[in-house]
Amino acid sequence: MAAERPVVFVIDDDPSMRHALEDLVASVGLEPRVFATPQDFLQARRADAPSCLVLDVRLPGASGLAFQQELAKAGIHLPVIFITGHGDIPMSVRAIKAGAVEFLSKPFRDQELLDAIHAGIERDRLQRQAAAAIAGLQQRFATLTEREREIMALVIAGHANKRIAARLGVAEGTVKVHRGQIMRKMLAQSVQELVRMGDLLGKPKS
Predict the structure, then answer these.
(1) Burial of 93 by CB count in 10 Å (0-12 exposed, 13-18 middle, 19+ buried)?
(2) Based on the domain organization, do 126 and 56 belong to the same domain?
């Protein structure tokens, strides 16, 4: 199945601004999805494609900054680009510290916004690749037996086969067999690669 086009979500309560942003996003081959309120956005289906969110700071009922925090708490990690006609320096600092890609004051140049959108989509693409890689590692790790997980922790801690065997009370040959199985199941080409996998999985070193 072909990958979906990158999507740019827009939340702005000004209809003319929504339409202008929709046309701008579509003009560079990206898919715009526009919403008048955060509630409309939350109720809509989000595409499984690299995305970012263009968010007005001033929204009915709540600020865009508060909605940015709400998204993070809900586990929605979309890169956010703020636009505002009433921005100030403290507000922009808060937004960037909270992870926003950019904070643009109206009127801004179209290219400024498009540059920020492309940066946001690239950030999301990298986040999605990293998440997929970790999910794959977790699936492979789940295929290990308890003993293999135990030996993997000792291997990535730097212990030699002989020491692992003594610690576990098994033959050194048994440890070698388990190590071979671990490397095969985890698709690791070297111990160094296995160590990196352990770090990504957050597995404590024994």
Answers:
(1) exposed
(2) yes
- Closest alpha carbon to 151 in 174, 184, 125, 121: 174
Question: Using the 8-state DSSP alphabet, how is residue 4 labeled?
Answer: P
Tally the domains of the chain: 2
| Residues present in the chain in total | 206
Residue 67, CB-side half-sphere exposure with 13 Å CA sphere: 25
Range list of H helices, 4-109: 15-27, 38-43, 64-73, 89-97
The answer, as to whether pTM is greater than 0.90, is no
Q: What is the pLDDT of residues 137-189, one digit of tens each?
A: 999 999 999 999 999 999 999 999 999 999 999 999 999 999 999 999 999 99
Whether 35 and 44 have beta carbons less than 8 Å apart is answered as: yes
Predicted local confidence at residue 204, as pLDDT: 52
Domain ranges, residue 40: 7-133
Q: How many CA atoms lie within 13 A of 66 on its CB side?
A: 7
Looking at residue 4, its pLDDT comes to: 73
Q: Are residues 43 and 77 in the same domain?
A: yes
* CATH code, 164: 1.10.10.10
Residues 6+ positions from 168 with CB-CB distance below 8 Å:
147, 150, 151, 154, 175
Residue from 21, 18, 22, 59 nearest 38 by CA: 59
